[in-house]
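Before relying on records like the one below, remember that each one covers exactly one chain. Contacts with other chains, cofactors or solvent are not represented anywhere in the record.
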Amino acid sequence: MSWCGRTATRRGERTFEMTVARSRKFRDSLRDGRTVWFRGQRIDVSSHPAFAGTLSTIGKLFDMLDDPKVQQTVGFLPPGGERYVHSSFLVPTTRAELERRRVAFAHWAKATHGVMSRLSDYARSLVTGWYAARDTLGRESPHFREKIIAYYEQARDEDRVMTTALLDPQIDRSRGLDDPDLADSVLRVVKETREGIVVRGAKMIATAAPYCHDFLIFPFHRVGEGQRHHAHALIVPANLPGLHIVCRESFAKEQADHYPLSARYDEMDAVLFFDDVLVPWERVLLYGDPEAVWKFRTNRTANALAFHQTVVRQLAKMEFVAGVAFAVAEAIGVHRFLHVQEKLGELITQVETVKALLVASEAGAERDGTGTMLPALALIETARILGTKLYPRALEILQQIGAGGFIQVPSTLEDLWGPIAELAQRYFAGASVGAEEKVRLFKLAWDVFGSELGSRHELYERYYAGDPVRASAALYLETDKRPYVQPVWELLGVRDRTGRGPDLPD
């Protein structure tokens, strides 16, 4: 019996699952012996108060898959299945199916106001992409195909939650893997056994790690031929002996009235310590072949499906921040001023730009060699790169609109009803809202940009897609520049015998 706790009854020739809330199954599944460290103590994630709001939110999202009103919006029935699974597991072969994935992503993203970025739909999309590309990637390893099929079906049918952990520990960025001291800190294979490989080292940043079932582990950067012990692609269960999940400080708050985002959506980030962890062979997708691992890391099918999700989530978040800014401006009457309207218009420009890139990527979708319908990756990458700049700017505009008003709110709503209630109601009121509505709104805005959670998200949006400088450079290097450059040389009357300009970049 899997962790999803199926109980079946027979009706004719068909088997139906008894109704048991997926949220409860999910929470129960976290009591699996995993080692999670928080504030110096090993904890039970399923019952710890620092995770209560987050787990409650995730549970409600999971329960949507059993809600007849929305299950077709967020999920689909797999072949031969009687139980809805999330559409991140759908391999799209048509534009309609690609749009169906986007609708599912958007529904979850809007339900969490774009704040929860690692609801597993990103990592699941990677797995789905690897599954779709199993024949191509299987050429790099004789057992890859059967392993990814088995895991994809297990993850899909058991609602397994997963995240990525790709970066090496930030010890000394001036040194590389050719330095033996640094290499000893980077995740590497130290032993092979009949049961699997033994790995030692660390990985970061594993967002949502404490309440995931599996970690997708592979190098973010290319590994050299002389570094084969660092070349691996693994799917690591969270409860393996020797694996330590070390959490950052919690940004969760108990007072939803004062911290409406922090109370619900604190996605815990963690570092993973691998203290001689035995990873079974069935979870070792690739090992010892740097070139094969790099092809896996850069697989277009998987990346296009996963990056598509990140832009959908990014759009939902930017729409929410714009909405907060509009509400603040109207609440204090500054939306009538031209210079404020210009800033609010900039937020709309941001949203519509990302939306246009998303729509265009789907309109320009094409099937790849696997038959999978993929969004235009260059447009997706453009949206991701823009997002690293647009989101911090959106927060800056929000700050400028409310200005000092954000620190001129009472410490608690009780001040509006206490001994000085008459004065508080008068002086905390807004142009179009009463004192309570204005204070609640301003506390929400503070949670967006001024709280610990808000600061974390600004940092996250700057770097979640990797170094934005490298990302922009990669977009340039991967783009066919000839359609841009050739008209320039033609205008200048410079042609070689092929009709191309001299030394046109490939």
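The chain has three domains: 18-157, 162-297, 300-466.
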